[in-house]
Design goal:
alpha+beta; Nucleotidyltransferase, domain 5; 2 domains; 6-stranded mixed β-sheet; 19 helices; 22 strands; globular
Length: 504
């Protein structure tokens, strides 16, 4: 492993400042991005949890709490006397908020992990066949995609849906609360399974099935376009002036991919966090029999690109185990890694995307059940469970990477790992060993950096995504990994395939 040098400078008056809101499925943060003299600096202003709220038999997000945290971050900027040029918001995909005719939010939004969408896809396909839905959208089938959420809510006669005048995706809803302007940002809309990537518009045939019209969404905007300025109310609350809110790549993965410090096009990326997303950046959507069979997705990117990728269950597995361990023992990541390294490699392997790991009551028991069902040693200790997760994730990455190699219109010469998971050097090395090509890890705050850089592009500090990536590459620290133990990892991969199950 080798590290590149960093050129990050201290914030000064010579720097131009931008405010990023980066909301993940477990936590959120507000970040100050400062750019000047060919360098960039990030400073985390606030960090806060984003817990799932279980009530009334359903799982919800608290959008008012998230809005309040954004306000806190903006107040911090005002109190420090920092002049920000704009604000940008990115979030996870697919979830949305209903807005009534009076402009008020009708209900806290459902969380994509709510089990009420189980079976929704199959019911929807009685109206439009599965193959046709994919041929229109090119989107990976997941029961919680916006299309199937809406189908579920219509089936359940959701009063908020019935009363909705407008529907806004999460980043768009928060931008609306700040500006009073309703928009639909392209990259976040592309996660919904309602958008045609060729026309870059919602497909009426798909919407008709769920009783929703295109007019119920805000006007379409693309990364870098202005949404509006802070309302007088927000200005008064925060102490700021009429700061513009910019439509960045509202889907966090799109912002993260925009931050990949690549100098040519022949790369794949792995956005590593609670979710992992592995893919390539292409000019045109890849929609064919193979992408359909492999359940790959085509999501909107920056400057008209398409992110051809597959969702993979990432650190969600370990996060859920840690939550259970925390009841008796709070293990640090360094303790978990040390314990994992003390366990024999490839002792127990799981398919990370098996249905049993989606949202189990106990992740530990779910992993043990999978190993029991596949005739493997049962991981008992925290070290055994952690090693099982790391080995399995790396081998799943190898599997998906192999699919990418078959479908990519160019040779993939390097894998860039971005997001919080890029700090996990053990998993990075395992991933490198598994895929068999050089891996570049970093930036860890890829989403926030992409968010900031798209604001900088809108402001005129950089010309295009190539300029963004050059500036990022010169401003952040990366680590490079080279493959090791190819024979052992190939042998382990064959074992992984022998226990690979999609029915547990």
């Amino acid at each position: 492993m080798s590290k590149s040098k960093t050129k990050i400078q201290l914030i000064s008056m010579e720097y131009t400042h931008f405010f990023a809101v980066d909301l993940g499925a477990t936590s959120g943060r507000t970040i100050l991005g400062s750019i000047g003299k060919g360098t960039m600096e990030l400073k985390e202003l606030t960090r806060f949890p984003n817990p799932i709220i279980e009530t009334g038999g359903h799982f919800h997000w608290d959008i008012y709490a998230l809005y309040n945290e954004i306000i806190k971050g903006l107040k911090t900027v005002a109190q420090k006397g920092i002049t920000i040029q704009s604000i940008g918001i990115d979030t996870w995909g697919v979830d949305f908020v209903f807005v009534g005719k009076d402009g008020g939010l009708l209900r806290n939004p459902y969380c994509y992990r709510d089990p009420h969408t189980i079976g929704a896809m199959e019911e929807y396909f009685t109206h439009i066949p599965k193959e046709k839905v994919y041929s229109i959208t090119g989107i990976q089938f997941m029961n919680f995609n916006s299309l199937f959420q809406l189908a579920t809510l219509r089936r359940n006669r959701c009063s908020a849906l019935e009363a909705a005048d407008k529907i806004l995706f999460m980043p768009d809803a928060l931008s609306y609360m700040l500006t009073g302007r309703m928009v639909t940002e392209y990259t976040i809309a592309s996660t919904s399974q309602m958008l045609n990537p060729r026309t870059k518009k919602f497909e009426k045939e798909l919407l008709d099935v769920v009783g929703v019209s295109e007019e119920q969404w805000g006007r379409f905007v693309y990364p870098g376009e202005p949404i509006g300025t802070l309302t007088e109310e927000v200005q008064q609350i925060t102490g700021l002036g009429a700061v513009p809110v910019i439509a960045v790549a509202g889907h966090d993965t799109a912002s993260a991919v925009a931050a990949v410090p690549a100098y040519d096009a022949n790369f794949a990326y792995l956005s590593s966090g609670t979710w992992s997303l592995m893919g390539i950046e292409v000019q045109d959507a890849i929609i064919n029999e193979e992408s359909y069979a492999r359940n790959f997705t085509n999501e909107g990117g920056v400057e008209g690109t398409t992110r051809f990728l597959k969702n993979i269950c990432g650190m969600w597995l370990l996060e859920r185990c840690r939550k259970e361990w925390d009841a008796t023992q709070n293990y640090s990541y360094s303790e978990l890694i040390e314990a994992a390294l003390a366990v024999p490699a490839f002792r127990s392997l799981i398919h990370p995307d098996a249905p049993c790991f989606a949202n189990p009551t106990s992740m530990i028991e779910a992993i043990q059940h999978y190993c029991r069902e596949t005739g493997q040693p049962i991981p008992e200790t925290y070290g055994e469970l952690t090693r099982c997760i790391f080995d399995s994730l790396a081998l799943r990455y190898k599997q998906v990477f192999g699919y990418l190699q078959q479908m990519a219109p160019f040779p993939i010469e390097k894998l860039h790992i971005i997001g919080g998971g890029s700090r996990n050097n053990l998993l990075n090395q395992f991933t490198c060993n598994a895929v068999g090509i050089p891996v570049v890890a970093g930036p860890s705050e890829g989403t926030a950096i992409g968010n900031i850089m798209l604001q900088a592009k809108a402001y005129g500090l950089v010309d295009d995504i190539a300029g963004m990536r050059r500036l990022i590459g010169s401003s952040i620290e990366t680590a490079t990994f080279t493959p090791e133990q190819p024979e052992a990892w190939e042998e382990a991969y064959q074992r992984y395939l022998s226990v690979y199950r999609e029915d547990i």
